[in-house]
Amino acid sequence: MVAESGTLDRLEQEIESEFIDETRDVLAGLEVMLGNFESGLVDGGKAVSTLMKSFRALEARSQSLDKAAMGVVSHRAGEYLSDFDTLARDRVVDIQVFIDVLRKLLDRGSAGEHSSELVRQLPSRRIVDFDVNEAVKKLNIEMMLIIPDRATSHYVGRELAACGYRISTAGSFFRGLELAVRTQPDMVITAAVLDEASGIDLIRALAGIAATAHTPVALLTSYAAGHPSLAELPPHAAVIRKGSSFGEDLAAALARFKIT
Fold first, then answer.
1. Where do the domains of the chain lie, and which CATH numbers do they carry?
2. For the range 105-111, what are the long-range contacts, defined as Cβ-Cβ under 8 Å and sequence gap of 24 or more?
């Protein structure tokens, strides 16, 4: 048994060392690519594609090895890039921030800030089809959207970004639950229909976890408040209806939770 334990320890150390070495190589390669982009040797579309693939792969690898902070930062880097078809020169500084934070996490291992503190130091997403986005005062308020439908998620995110909020997203029940617990956003808005479970299940799960027990939550749904399908929705949750009432319901939810 002792021999088996020692073998497993060595194997884990080898996997850890391999992950660190490979990640350093990836980050160094991305910096070289960014330099080539700024020199005109790589076009913006290719740059975005390369960055997205690298950050998504690193997120998946980090999750498989239980590297929580690395996974969260990689996820946020991928989110940031998801709004662009091509990379603009004024975004390179933000991308470098993500790379620098990932490298620092490699250097210090599991020590350092909690993921909830770390994400607030990262560049926030910029919704590119909003003309006033650059003029809006940026607020250090994290809004998490757990909405599988990309078009709906983008629409809600755009409305919140127009108010200056920082936006993060997740497309599934379990990933949303994990990210909410790890990053502790100021508010969670979840779709009523998710994949493995419902939005109501997610709201109840968040209420049962100490880290998110008091996190303001809202359910995005086509049903009006009081509909039988919402019977099991906890009373502490707000309801945001899709359609013509969306803006009014969103404003009411933000006011109710004093998210300003």
1. 2-121 (1.20.120.160), 133-256 (3.40.50.2300)
2. 105/67, 105/69, 105/70, 105/73, 106/20, 106/23, 106/24, 106/70, 110/69
